[in-house]
């Protein structure tokens, strides 16, 4: 998947070999090659000597006298704060590398049952040097097309497991599912439901697996009726929450595998005049701006979307320079962000109220009416 044509890889050592020879990291060697000023003089000297000694040929791609090279970012859609976070990370890393970014949306559109090829042809037409795919599921023919044209690419949070050798960046979804569930268990909940995304999507299955692992480690019985799928759709998540409330023994807490779906859960609870967290504790996933705007503010698992995108951009730059990342899968850590949507189950209310008072003392003026879901 790495470009190997004459325009991309000249004879001689790779930048990784130069970095090893100079005793520095590949990014540091790349800064020297591209004339960046944020390198110590002694480090610059060692790298320059290694470049000359090994006969490294600088790629003309990043010549400051030429127009900036282009990279494509192909996203599923542009109508969410998720996409905004990804764009932010890509733009910052591209700016550091002296690259321009072209954004395309609607990768999955089809004509006459055949995946649309327009974005593929445009990559060649504008001379793009590489491609980032976000939330994409490519067909075998599309992978083959990219390889045939020797275009380096990186997947950001791929929908399904990509073929062997494809470079991708994602979040530690399994650990995020563990953290969310352990938080609810620690508050005293045992009747914990999960509203998952798509059944076959990598991130969704990993989060559910983390939920199950945390229950098993705590010795809490897993109830099959507590698992619902909503396809990352807010309105469907609302319906699934209403279904859970109709169970003979409904849950006291729910782990929702995206913040957007959690807003649908809030709506369902408001319709039933149930309070968060007094009647139902809710944990989301993503830590989008919506999580902070909700009322009460949503406890959620933060995945570093901008950092994921920036990491993917930096990996793509290395591949454009002829490098090959040491591993094909990079995972960035997730962490739980505690806010006001979780508390102890009823029956332990006094303890929860004490905790809430402590939170209020730490955050004066915390509003409970920022968003109306009714």
Write up what this structure looks like.
With 374 residues, this protein is an alpha/beta fold. The protein is 41% helix and 16% strand. The protein contains 13 helices and 14 strands. The protein has a six-stranded parallel sheet, covered by helices on one side. Helix 1 packs across helix 3, helix 4 (81-97) packs parallel to helix 12 (305-320) and helix 9 (234-245) packs across helix 10 (259-271). It is elongated, with a radius of gyration of 24 Å.
Write the layout of secondary structure elements.
Blueprint: H1 15-22, H2 26-33, H3 41-54, E1 69-75, H4 81-97, E2 99-105, E3 110-111, E4 114-115, H5 118-125, E5 131-134, H6 140-148, E6 153-156, E7 168-171, H7 173-186, E8 192-196, H8 202-218, E9 227-229, H9 234-245, E10 253-256, H10 259-271, E11 281-286, H11 289-293, E12 299-302, H12 305-320, E13 329-332, E14 335-337, H13 349-362
Parallel strand pairs: 1-2, 1-5, 5-6, 6-7, 7-13, 8-9, 8-10, 10-11, 11-12
Antiparallel strand pairs: 3-4, 12-14
Helix pairs in contact: 1-2, 1-3, 4-12, 7-8, 9-10
Brief account:
The protein has 13 helices and 14 strands.
Q: What is the overall pLDDT average?
A: 83
What topology, given as strand order, has the largest sheet? 2-1-5-6-7-13
How far the N terminus sits from the C terminus, by CA atoms, comes to: 50 Å
Label the structural class: alpha/beta
| Number of beta-strand segments | 14
Strand content: 15-25%
Unreliable residue runs: 1-11, 60-65, 108-115, 350-374
N-to-C SSE series?
HHHEHEEEHEHEEHEHEHEHEHEHEEH
Shape: elongated
Rg from Cα: 24 Å
């Amino acid at each position: 998947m790495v470009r190997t044509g004459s325009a991309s890889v000249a004879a001689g050592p790779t930048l990784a070999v130069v970095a090893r020879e100079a005793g520095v990291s590949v990014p540091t060697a790349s800064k020297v090659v591209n004339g960046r000023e944020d390198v110590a003089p002694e480090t610059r000297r060692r790298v320059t000597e290694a470049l000359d000694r090994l006969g490294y040929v600088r790629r003309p791609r990043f010549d400051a006298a030429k127009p900036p090279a282009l990279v494509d970012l192909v996203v599923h859609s542009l109508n969410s704060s998720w996409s905004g976070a990804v764009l932010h990370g890509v733009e910052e890393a591209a700016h550091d590398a002296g690259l321009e970014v072209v954004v395309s949306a609607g990768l999955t559109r089809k004509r006459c049952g055949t995946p649309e090829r327009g974005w593929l042809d445009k990559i060649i037409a504008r001379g793009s040097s590489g491609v980032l795919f976000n939330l994409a599921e490519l067909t075998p023919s599309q992978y083959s097309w990219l390889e045939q044209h020797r275009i380096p690419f990186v997947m950001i949070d791929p929908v399904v497991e990509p073929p062997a050798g494809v470079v991708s960046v994602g979040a530690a979804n399994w650990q995020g599912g563990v953290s969310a569930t352990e938080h609810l268990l620690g508050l005293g909940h045992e009747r914990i439901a999960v509203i998952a995304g798509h059944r076959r999507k990598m991130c969704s299955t990993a989060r559910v697996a983390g939920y199950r692992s945390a229950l098993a480690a705590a010795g809490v019985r897993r109830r099959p009726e507590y698992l619902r799928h909503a396809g990352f759709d807010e309105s469907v998540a609302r319906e699934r929450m209403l279904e859970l409330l109709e169970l003979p023994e409904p849950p006291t807490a729910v782990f929702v595998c995206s913040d957007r779906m959690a807003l649908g859960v809030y709506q369902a609870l408001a319709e039933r005049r149930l309070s968060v967290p007094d009647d139902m504790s809710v944990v989301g996933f993503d830590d989008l701006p919506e999580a902070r705007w909700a009322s009460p503010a949503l406890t959620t698992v933060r995945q570093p979307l901008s950092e994921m995108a920036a990491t993917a951009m930096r990996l793509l730059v290395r591949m454009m320079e002829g490098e090959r990342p040491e591993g094909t899968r990079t995972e960035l850590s997730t962490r739980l962000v505690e806010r006001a949507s979780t508390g102890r189950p009823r029956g332990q209310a006094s303890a929860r109220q004490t905790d809430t008072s402590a939170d209020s003392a730490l955050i004066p003026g915390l509003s409970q009416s920022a968003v109306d879901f009714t």
